[in-house]
Design a protein that fits this description.
The complex is a heterodimer. By secondary structure, chain A is mainly alpha-helical. Helix content of chain A is about 75%, strand content about 5%. The longest helix of chain A is centred in the C-terminal third of the chain and has 32 residues, at about 315-350. The model of chain A has no long low-confidence stretch (mean pLDDT about 90). Chain B is built from 18 helices and no strands. The chains are: A mainly alpha, B mainly alpha. The interface of A and B includes residues 65, 67, 138 and 143 of A.
């Protein structure tokens, strides 16, 4: 029941925010915050009362038994971390949009619904339920971009939804095929995992799953929606896109391919490594050429998520652990950068690197925050990003030194785009108006939380590693079991 | 007594139709509508409440027939609710009642005579309902319905005659007989029903009726008549040999409808025309499900069409609300200027696109699962392609609703229209989050079929 509440609380928060907002906009924000905090408390409760085995908690409820669909929710360390991340980012975005005036109740409701749907993705182990939340997540994000976005928001929202929904059809077809062709109509992932699907079928099904995950991740050549969506989305939308939506893709790749189709995964993983290696270099190089700060950060996301793909496809303990840590670390650093760039845009209405500059004089808090999170994007030692990427590279050395060196090269390229952006924004003199108002408390609070997260998990990664360990071991074991 | 129970809703509808027709020239519009609405509610209660399974050679009184009758009454109520008092002709309520009666008869039809009677009752009242505004587009739509519908009826009659020649029996259940005449009869029967069900290449009337006719007529043509014809198809599907021309024909018509309907809907700037073409694609999906010939196919097909009904109802009502500006540009910002109508239309479009949390997701689930179970990879690929195309044109309209550069607000919705929006949207969302009741109901209704 507690696991259902993790999804239900944010969802109800959205509904109450919408209803309460009709009378009083402040009530909407408070409703959203209260319900998200209820979610956090529920998560803490599950931690207190959970088992110490492979799964902290598991729930099975009938949903539509005639259709073979049930509510199967399970929480392990990986899911716990992802759900915590999603609730934290939800709270953070509500705080950040506290003073929003433009259709604020609906804005807070969409934020809550995005959190609810992604919690559903992180917890579901009935494949239809998973697909349900997977598709459901697209709708509030679509609204976020389409309603509160900048510039060409309609085109960006359309591109986002079309790419992801069409890729989602691959997932849907694979899931429905699995359920329909089994001995009984069942979508229980645990049961499907023991079904011994023939390898040829496994490959096709895996490709269906992977299509949805790789578009969401996104890995080149499936990334075309991301720069536009990130650039046109409002700040809170970019934070949820980078912090949550991309993570659902990574989570899906982490969890399901090896669980359901281990044989096919061993066949397909080398291609995943290749795509990932291409993506890291491609994302980093394209980021070097961007002039729009948000677009630049969007391309760095492509590079970092490609590292995650490499880590997952590497399939060894180090690389998987690294992939898990990069997922968390990137959520912090990318969210923080989008927050900072969004705050600058609110003040001077430009994100163009050629027009910005001189932050260190006019707004020192901005400059300090930029310094920290640039360091994180470059994977400086001490940040969680460093730890994650270092582990992935270590894992790569165990498999193939070519991939390891490619990842190392991408690290060098990331220094190029990072320092370029840092220099343009923080030093020099502004071409247009200078940013004269420094970070407000409402912006500083979320940033401090993100900074603590980045540094804490960089210096004391034990929390994360203990949490990720069972999931990583399961993946490694199931790959080892089918290894020739 | 059970016999009487099965007929009670039909009697109520028929008497009310005659009654409203008699009083419509004199009585005020309010009284006529009130009487028609009352009759529909009574018929709805009677078809839901009757427990008897009394059947005759002509009409079945089984659960399927009662479900069809209830859905026809609900659609009739929706059609009545979106009639505009100012412009609707006084005969409209009586015609809606007649069409509902036809749909109810059709969903119980187990005999050639009732099949033809039901079809023509729907068709003729639909034509009258379509042409009554006497505008250019309405007359065009009416002519298309008349000519194409007549052609369809002729093919259907020919099919019935050939079937009769082979078997010497007019009951639908006896047509499983093998034989060349029976196969030809089945093909013609399928073609005749394909006219009513708007399957390619018998689809030409649909977009014109949706855009030219009054919304109530479009609702009758797109929802009431389609649900009833789907029930007829389900009944025939159980009877027809599973390797003959029937499933092949369904599959061919289905593929053609999905592809052509979706492709033509892609570039429609007008909401009703887009709905018209996309409804052809949805008919195609139902045909694909039925062609899979799986034991659960009837249930899946009915689930699909029932899930489709509230979405199309809400979308057509919203199109009627926007009137001449129900286009990609004219609908801009409708979610802000008319929140309830805009939200209902958005939910309806998401449902038609098959996205959660609208019930359309589960319809897509049924469609894909059924084709996967039957091992029909090719048909599954067609369904995926059609869904991918559908995403584009439905979302383009959804996006328009949320734009900020709206030109003008559509007129205010009447209380009846508001009720339609509210009921349809809540049905779609509730069943979207919790589809079990509908699945259970339909499984019970089609059990043993």
């Amino acid at each position: 029941m507690a696991l259902t509440l993790l999804i239900l609380f944010p969802f109800l928060g959205g509904i109450f925010a919408l209803l309460a907002g009709r009378a009083e906009p402040t009530a909407a924000r408070i409703a959203a915050i209260v319900f998200l905090i209820c979610g956090v408390l529920t998560l803490a409760w599950t931690f207190q009362h959970g088992d110490s085995g492979r799964w902290i908690m598991m729930t099975r409820e009938p949903w539509a038994p005639m259709m073979g669909v049930n509510i199967i929710l399970a929480l392990d360390g990986l899911s716990f971390i992802m759900v915590a991340l999603s609730l934290a980012l939800g709270l953070l975005t509500v705080v950040l949009s506290w003073n929003a005036t433009d259709r604020a109740p609906l804005l807070h409701a969409t934020l809550c619904w995005t959190v609810a749907a992604s919690n559903g993705v992180f917890l579901s182990f009935d494949l239809v339920l998973f697909a349900f939340f997977w598709e459901l997540m697209l709708v509030p994000s679509f609204l976020l971009i389409a309603i509160w976005g900048h510039g060409e928001r309609e085109a960006a929202a359309m591109k986002f939804l079309i790419f992801n929904a069409i890729a989602g059809l691959g997932l849907l077809a694979a899931v429905f095929w699995i359920g329909a062709t089994g001995p009984t109509v069942s979508f229980d992932a645990f049961e499907v995992a023991e079904r011994n699907i023939p390898v040829a079928a496994q490959v096709w099904l895996l490709l269906g799953f992977a299509l949805a995950f790789m578009v969401k991740l996104p890995v080149p050549p499936f990334h075309a929606w991301l720069p536009d969506a990130h650039t046109q989305a409002p700040t809170v939308g970019s934070i949820l896109l980078a912090g949550l939506l991309l993570k659902t893709g990574a989570y899906g790749l982490f969890r399901f391919p090896t669980m359901l189709f281990p044989e096919a995964m061993t066949l397909v993983a080398p291609f995943g490594l290749m795509l990932g290696a291409f993506g890291t270099i491609y994302g980093a190089l394209v980021a070097c050429g961007q002039t729009d700060a948000k677009r630049l950060v969007a391309y760095t996301s492509v590079a970092h998520m490609s590292v995650v793909l490499m880590g997952i496809c590497g399939g060894v303990h180090f690389s998987l652990m690294g992939a898990g840590i990069v997922m968390v670390a990137h959520a912090f650093s990318a969210s923080a950068l989008f927050l900072l760039i969004g705050s600058i845009y609110d003040r001077v209405h430009t994100r163009d690197l050629r027009e910005l500059g001189g932050l260190q004089r006019s707004a020192p808090r901005f400059a300090a925050a930029f310094a920290l999170f640039f360091a994180a994007t470059l994977a400086m030692p001490g940040t969680a990003n460093f730890l994650g990427e270092a582990l992935v590279i270590t894992g790569m050395f165990q498999i193939n030194w070519t991939y390891a060196s490619i990842t190392l090269v991408s690290l060098v390229v990331s220094v190029v785009y990072g320092t370029r952006m840092f220099q343009r924004i923080v030093f020099g003199t502004p071409r247009k108006t200078a940013v004269s108002v420094d970070l407000s408390l409402r912006e500083l609070g979320p940033l401090i939380v993100l900074a603590i997260g980045t540094l804490m998990f960089g210096l004391l990664p034990q929390f994360l590693m203990v949490g990720l360990d069972p999931a990583v071991n399961t993946v490694v074991d199931s790959l080892r079991a089918v290894a020739p | 007594m059970t016999q009487g129970m099965g007929l009670a809703p039909l009697i109520a509808l028929g008497m009310a139709a005659v009654g409203t027709m008699v009083i419509s020239p004199r009585a005020s519009a309010f009284v006529v509508r009130g009487l028609a609405g009352l009759a529909l509610v009574v018929a709805l209660v009677l078809s839901l409440g009757s427990v008897g399974t009394g059947s005759s050679d002509l009409l079945a009184g089984d659960a399927l027939a009662r479900l069809g009758g209830a859905l026809a009454c609900l659609t009739g109520l929706a059609a009545l609710a979106i009639l505009r008092p100012a412009t609707a002709p006084p005969e409209a309520p009586a015609l809606i009642l007649l069409a509902t009666l036809g749909a109810a008869v059709l969903s119980g039809a187990v005999h050639a005579a009732t099949l033809f009677l039901g079809l023509e009752l729907v068709a003729l009242s639909l034509i009258a309902l379509t042409v009554l505004p006497r505008t250019g587009p309405a007359l065009e739509a009416g002519y298309k319905l008349l000519v194409l519908g007549g052609l369809g009826a002729a093919m259907l009659l020919m099919g019935l005659a050939l079937g009769y020649a082979e078997t010497g029996d007019l009951a639908l259940a006896s047509w499983a007989a093998p034989g060349q005449l029976a196969a030809l009869g089945a093909a013609l029967l399928l073609a005749g029903l394909a006219f009513k069900f708007a399957l390619v290449p018998f689809h030409m009337w649909t977009p014109d009726v949706f855009s030219g006719a009054p919304a109530a007529a479009a609702l009758v043509a797109g929802v009431a008549s389609k649900v009833a014809v789907a029930i007829v198809l389900v009944r025939l599907n159980a009877v027809m040999p599973s390797d003959g021309i029937w499933p092949t024909g369904l599959a061919v018509l289905g593929v053609a409808s999905v592809l052509l309907g979706s492709l033509q809907a892609l570039r429609q700037p007008s909401l009703p025309r887009m709905l018209g073409f996309s409804s052809i694609a949805h008919s195609g999906y139902v045909a694909l499900i039925l062609s899979a010939q799986m034991p659960a196919a009837p249930e899946a097909a009915l689930f699909y069409i029932v899930a489709y009904a509230p979405a199309l109802t809400a979308a057509l009502a919203a199109a009627a609300l926007a009137g001449d500006v129900a286009t990609l540009t004219g609908l801009r910002g409708m979610a802000w200027t008319r929140p309830l109508a805009g939200a209902a239309l958005a939910v309806a479009l998401l449902s038609l696109a098959g996205l959660p949390a609208a019930v359309g997701f589960w319809a897509k689930f049924k469609l894909f699962t059924m084709l996967a179970q039957a091992g029909q990879t090719g048909l599954l690929a067609v369904a995926i392609l059609g869904s991918a195309l559908g995403l584009y044109f439905y979302l383009a309209f959804t996006l328009a609703l949320f734009r900020r550069d709206g030109l003008e607000a559509p007129r205010k919705a009447s209380p009846g229209e508001l009720a339609v929006f509210l009921v349809a949207a809540s049905l779609m969302l509730i069943l979207g989050f919790y589809p079990a009741p509908l699945a259970d109901l339909l499984a019970a209704v089609t059990f043993g079929r």
